[in-house]
Amino acid sequence: MLRAAGISDPISLRVAVHPLFLDRYKSLLTTLLAIWSELGVEVEIATPTMASYLDSFQNSTGIDVFIGRWNADYDDPDDFTYGLFHSRMGLYRPYISSADGDQILEEARTESRPGVRASLYRKYESFLQESGMVLPLFHDVDYRLANAKVLGLTLRGSAPYVNYAEIGKLESGAEATDSLRAGGGTIEVRLPELCTTWILHWQSTVEDAEVLPNIFETLTRDVGGARIVPWLATDFTAEQGGKRYRFRLRDDLRFHDGRKLTARDVRYSFERLLLNPDSPGGSSIHPFAARRRC
Question: Between β-strands 11-17 and 41-45, what pairing exists: parallel, antiparallel or unpaired?
Answer without folding.
Answer: parallel
